[in-house]
Amino acid sequence: MRVTAEGGDASARRERRRPRDGTQGGGARHTDYRQLRNPFPAATVFSEDQVEAIHETALKVLEELGIKVLLPEARAIYRAAGAIVEDDSQMVWIGRDIIADALAAAPRAFVLRGAVPGRDIEMKLGTLAFQSGAGAPNITDRIRGRRPGTLAAAEQTAKLIQHFDALHLMCPGVEAQDIDTALRHYAVMRLQLTVSDKVPCVASRGAAQIRDSFEMVRIMRGLTEDEFTAAPRCYTIINTNSPRQIDMPMARGLIDFARAGQPSVVTPFCLMGAMAPVTVAGALTLSHAEALAAIALTQLSRPGAPVLYGAFSSNVDMKSGAPAFGTPEEVKASLGSGQLARHLGLPWRNAAGSSANINDAQAAHETEMSAWGAVLAGATLILHAAGWIEGGLSISLEKFVTDMEMVQSFAELCMPTAADEAAIAFDAIREVQPGGHFFGCAHTMERYASAFYEPLVADWSNFGTWTERGGKDASERATALWQRIVAEHHRPASVTDDRVEALAAFIARRTAEGGAPLES
Amino acid sequence: MRVTAEGGDASARRERRRPRDGTQGGGARHTDYRQLRNPFPAATVFSEDQVEAIHETALKVLEELGIKVLLPEARAIYRAAGAIVEDDSQMVWIGRDIIADALAAAPRAFVLRGAVPGRDIEMKLGTLAFQSGAGAPNITDRIRGRRPGTLAAAEQTAKLIQHFDALHLMCPGVEAQDIDTALRHYAVMRLQLTVSDKVPCVASRGAAQIRDSFEMVRIMRGLTEDEFTAAPRCYTIINTNSPRQIDMPMARGLIDFARAGQPSVVTPFCLMGAMAPVTVAGALTLSHAEALAAIALTQLSRPGAPVLYGAFSSNVDMKSGAPAFGTPEEVKASLGSGQLARHLGLPWRNAAGSSANINDAQAAHETEMSAWGAVLAGATLILHAAGWIEGGLSISLEKFVTDMEMVQSFAELCMPTAADEAAIAFDAIREVQPGGHFFGCAHTMERYASAFYEPLVADWSNFGTWTERGGKDASERATALWQRIVAEHHRPASVTDDRVEALAAFIARRTAEGGAPLES
Questions:
Q1: B205 contacts in A (CB within 8 Å)?
Q2: Of B422, A67, B315, B367, residue with least CA distance to B375
Q3: How far is A490 from chain B (nearest CA, A)?
Q4: From residue A271, how far is each of A29, A242, B464 by CA, in Å?
Q5: Is the Cβ pair B65, A430 closer than 8 Å?
Q6: How far is it, in rounded angstroms, from Cα A196 to Cα A188?
Q7: pLDDT for A198-207, tens place per residue?
Q8: What is the spatial distance between Cα B253 and Cα B15, in angstroms, rounded to a whole number?
């Protein structure tokens, strides 16, 4: 019986021919996810006139309304450039000429340098890099449940990040809350620098911690201070305190990173209806103004310092005030942010993530929606693309794995699609008779082992087989995978004993000196 | 403690101000998802030269290799147009002139007419319509588990389809396997025509069943035969039997629908490595050839008959032969198919779906990936966008609901994004002081009730609240939602008692005559 041509054609599907001796046809699949170029045309939500109107209004916000800057040194830098500063109120009014000069000075492209050239990542409009969920206070997995982040948990996420080439930068996935804040940066930087050869993330928590962190990067990379400042070797995430405020550690980070030639990823976190206007255009106007002010501070601190424009705007649930991610409004905000970034010509970051509390269909839906929004917006760097759950309050190790299926799929979509004579395969079509199948034909046998992306966690078996195997959902299957990846972690070749020892010596000395207290 | 600027800013998120009297600011949100235009620039995987090469090779396949056509009447039609036909082998070799004439005759746009003008759906390049999962042999839900499709189950899916404006066409979600095949089309057509005012789907299972189905549409729409054939009022899905074969009922459907002025949705189902070459370009070459042959048959049967080009190409798991959906290869095939459809200038269908066996992160990931592929490919009609699981062998009622979050999000993305002076909100930005919030400002109060898409099933509460409420995942929450939608179904106003009675009388007469046996 022909139940349904599409759904019920199961017998044809089951029909197959393949070598039973375990050999693979054609040779194994080779993938290179390390430096991606975004293959999609940028999508837009605004006209060019509207983009210009948002940019002009943001300039007017900075000129007429001003921005509160808590760090006196930062206000002094703005003042020296000609901005109007009122120290009592900590307000700074920034003229459009200052912004224009800063935008002229900011580099359109730069390369973040890893421990080895294979981990270098170019940042410019058109490149595409992913980063895992970062900085969550909690971690959760199916074995141990939800709990506060620890250094051990951060080590697990670091090993997962290192494992996947499609995650381009290192970061602490969760906050090591079991380490004293005056010493935490030593542990977290050591972790990033010894588990991975990718570019590490430095938390901007005061001048002393930043100085220590830079020193650790220099030690592990074997660089003089001049060599270090000559090229980006690490990065920091700078969130303004929307609306219209830059706090002490954020301003400190912008200044110190710029002076050291290291990039800040400037990211106002403007939730529509909460810290920003309820409209997409209004939230982006505020976000853009704050980003311009922060970018200006980097360029006033050191003209030409690498910097990423950033935007992370979503909406809140107006019934509860809860932040929402993966919403249509977030996608629209991402697309608009991409237009503003291209208006400036700067590389920029966006984000993907979910507000779900468990790794379910909502979690996947929200993460995929926001990730597609970021990709179609032409984001250079997409943060939080794996594991980010509860709106960033937890990293889920199972979601990390299931999200990587998405991230790797994006990486696959960056690969070219062959359409030469061999790929068009007229001869194979001739070889297979009407109603036959291609499982055994030469064209298939030569290619089948490398033809398709091999999934991480997807189970494509039929319902009967899947049920016999225990009926496990994707999260249940993901547990074994993250456990195996963590267990099989190998120290990268670039992490040598002498440097690890030098790092340990530095940390021992600084710890004996009392570490570096958190500044806020 | 500043745990993390992005993830840990929970206190700011919880801060909010809203009216406590239940009134809504600004007025309720108005949405119109009924006739969508695709807002995204079409993404591509091939150069124009490569598209031309695939098209040329497909023409060569039809000219030199031919296609097997099982229905003698169809072969006669091809022969009369000048094709070379060999009745012994049932092979037809179709010259490129025949294809060119057919493509010249096929309309670039047409309107599928529902029971009321509000259900009319325009089909052309640039419009965007979604359809639910269709024709699955099984149904599954959390209450009753997985079981064979029945008429009662089809009624549930029909009520869900009718409920959501973002599902633009009616179809039987599951196969009513409890109804004798000679009578099933009466029950299924009656179901579609009485539960819904949307355009119904007719299964092409032989001339008599098609004739009966057309008559039922005429009765319910109050149309003469001439009025019926003057405009599309229903549609059928035609799957070729890849590779290179069109079976009896499919050829019958192509002919009879064209003669009645009703559209066929021509869809080769070309799984790479199984029924088609293992390469994307090869699978699309075969798919394109088969689609051209089928489109030609419609235009030879009645020049100018409405028809949709179609493509549904994904890959199989080469280890097991199992079909896979939502893979990078499927997305690439969709993008390439869109290029081929635009090469022809015809409206076209694509699909979204998943091979997962449960409504988990895999199911959502695969569905979102394939849906985004179809949207970015510029598909006019996206089938299987809600509920389709197990590669089409089941409809999951919970997945139906969670998928609708995605479909409605796409519909929201089709809506314009305001960026006038009021939306840019300079005055609101001025009103809110640095470090303050926008919850209570006038700009927010005027808009908050209608500013954002309101989710169907997403739960944005924090982990504590979510846990207190029972810690339900999206699928568990979806159960109550589909149950409510089904329970609250109301018969559309266009479904009047006199027409329902006329339909019942027709069905009674035809049933007494023995119905219409399935032809295959």
A1: 2
A2: B367
A3: 29
A4: 42, 9, 21
A5: yes
A6: 12
A7: 999 999 999 9
A8: 61
